[in-house]
Amino acid sequence: MQVVQSIADLRAARAHWPGLAFVPTMGNLHDGHLALVRQAKATGRPVAVSIFVNRLQFAPSEDFERYPRTLEDDLALLAAENVALVFTPTEAEIYPEPQTWRLQPPPALADILEGAFRPGFFIGVATVVLKLFNLVQPELAVFGKKDYQQLLLVTQMCRQLALPIEILPGETVRTEDGLALSSRNRFLSPAERAQAPELQRCLVQLAARLREGAGAIEPLERAGADRLTARGWQIDYVAIRRAADLQPFTTADLADGAPGVILAAARLGSTRLIDNLELPPELRRHASG
Ligand code: PAF
Fold first, then answer.
1. What's the domain range around 247?
2. Is the pLDDT of residue 288 over 80?
3. Residues with beta carbon inside 6 Å of ligand 1?
C-alpha cells in the first residue's frame, strides 16, 4: 500500500494504477467505510482511499477540531484491505490559498434536509469532492447510502458536469441492534447509545404504516418525529421523500409505486445522528397493485 501526502506524489503514484476505484473519506474509519472499500475492490480495480477532514463542509457552529483523527489506525485498517493507494493530504495541500472558488449545487437538492440544517454543507462537500476527483482521477467512486443526499448530489454532479466517473452506492452497515455505523457514535453516552437504534426503528415503523395504508404523508412524518421526541430526541427532520430527487413524496407517488425514502436527522444530547430507509419494493408493488 502506497501512502502519499502531496499532490505531486499522488500524481506520480496514480500513473502506476490505471482505472482506480476511489473511496473518499474523512478518516476515523469503521466497518461502514471498510464495506465501501471492499465494494470498490470487488470491481476488480485497484482501490484508492483519501483521508481528509474537510473544513469547508463544517459550519462555524460545528466542531471541526473535535472531529476524530485516527490516521495510524486508519492506515492499518486500509493496509489489511490491500488498498493500493492512500492519499492523506494536509489542509495546506488541498487549500494552499483561500478556496474562493466553490461549487454551488442546485438549491432544490442542496438546501433541503441536511442542507437546511447545515447551511453551506453541500457547497463544501461538492467543492472538495470535485477537487479530489480532479486529483485522483478515478474511473469509479463509492459513496455510502447512509449519506443519502450526498450520494444523490455527487451522482447528479458527475452526470451534469459530464465527469467520466461512475458512482456506486454502498449499503449502510449497522450494528446488531440496527444503529447505522458513524464516526459520531463514539460521542454517545451509554444511555444515548442504548437509545440510538430507535432512530432506525422509527423509520421502519413509518414504512410499516405506509404499507398498511396510513393515509396522508405529513401526519405520518409528524408522528415519527413525535415518537422520537417522546424518547428524548431533538428532531431536525423526519421526512418521506421521492428517492430520485428528495422532493416531498405524495400519496399519488405511493399509489404510482414511485421509489421513496424516509430520512431523519435528530440529536441525542449533543450528538447529531442521521439515518434513512428506502421504501421496500414490496411496499411499492402493494401500493400499485
Ligand atoms: O462523506 C464524507 O466522509 C465526506 O463528506 C466526503 C465525501 C469524504 C467529503 O469530505
1. 183-288
2. no
3. 24-26, 54, 57, 125, 128-129, 147, 150
